[in-house]
Design goal:
The protein has five helices and no strands. The protein is mainly alpha-helical. It has one domain. The chain starts with a helix and ends in a 5-residue tail after the last helix.
Length: 109
């Protein structure tokens, strides 16, 4: 897989975790506890952002370990690739949060 394909895939995995996890979690909260679904949806989207990053990167420390190896072995290309992956994962997670917040929780970010 090329670097661009990996970046796009990482972005959409994080976006999907936020959108899918929030929608299904709010449905579960409504069915089991009678919680208001729109409030729960936005609250879950905020809480799931870190887990979207972790799942999109494929593990908690893989990207950070690759950055460390890049520093120690003098490979700046690997460092920039891992930083780009982290930024794409965060961008996808934050876009999902913004979409849900603007649709169901007001216009403020």
């Amino acid at each position: 897989m090329s670097t661009i394909e990996t970046l796009v895939t990482t972005f959409f995995i994080a976006l999907g975790v936020i959108l899918g996890g929030s929608l299904l979690g709010s449905l579960a909260g409504f069915l089991s506890a009678g919680e208001p679904p729109f409030y729960t949806l936005v609250e879950l989207a905020e809480k799931l952002k870190i887990w979207a990053l972790v799942s999109a990167l494929g593990g908690t420390f893989t990207a950070f370990r690759a950055i460390e190896i890049g520093f120690l072995s003098g490979q700046p290309a690997e460092i920039f690739k891992q930083l780009a992956l982290i930024i794409c994962a965060f961008g996808g997670a934050h876009l999902g949060y913004i979409i849900l917040k603007s649709c169901f929780g007001g216009n403020s970010f």
